[in-house]
Write a structure and sequence with these properties.
This is EF hand. This protein has 5 helices and 2 strands; from the N terminus they run ααβααβα. The protein is 53% helix and 5% strand. The protein is elongated, with a radius of gyration of 24 Å. The chain has a two-stranded antiparallel ribbon. The N and C termini lie far apart (68 Å). With 123 residues, the protein is mostly helical. It has a domain of 54 residues: Recoverin, domain 1, CATH 1.10.238.
């Protein structure tokens, strides 16, 4: 009787653990990836952490390099967090609305984009 009770408890524990693992896996697969905030993106781009992004810090990022002068509102050679956030907000407002599951179109060819419309769009 005691052995039977131990086996039942062991089976219950295995089922519980298995269901928990399955539930966590399902949640991680269906969870939407959150977009980084402008502050987090700025932090990653400001490689020397001096509070400004300079061209040398983004020369390996083609779109950032092309759009650098548009983001550098006061043309001092560096993009501050405020300039970055202002540009980011402008881009967000000009982005077309899309439905659930629709992939964004990467067209930077308009005058509000990073390359000012004088370049071909990049895919």
């Amino acid at each position: 009787m005691k052995t039977q009770k131990s086996i039942m408890i062991a089976i219950a524990i295995c089922l519980f653990v298995g269901m928990s693992a399955f539930s966590q896996e399902e949640n991680s697969n269906t969870k939407k990836r959150e977009r980084p905030t402008p502050e987090k993106m700025f932090e990653r781009l400001d490689k020397n952490s001096d509070g400004k992004i300079v061209k040398e810090e983004v020369e390996d990022r083609k779109r950032m390099s092309k759009g650098f002068d548009k983001m550098d509102a006061n043309a001092d050679g560096g993009i501050t967090l405020e300039e970055f956030k202002t540009f980011f907000e402008k881009m967000r407002k000009n982005r077309p609305q899309r439905t659930e599951g629709e992939r964004p179109k990467r067209d930077w060819g308009n005058n509000e984009g990073m390359n000012g419309g004088d370049q071909e769009s990049e895919e």
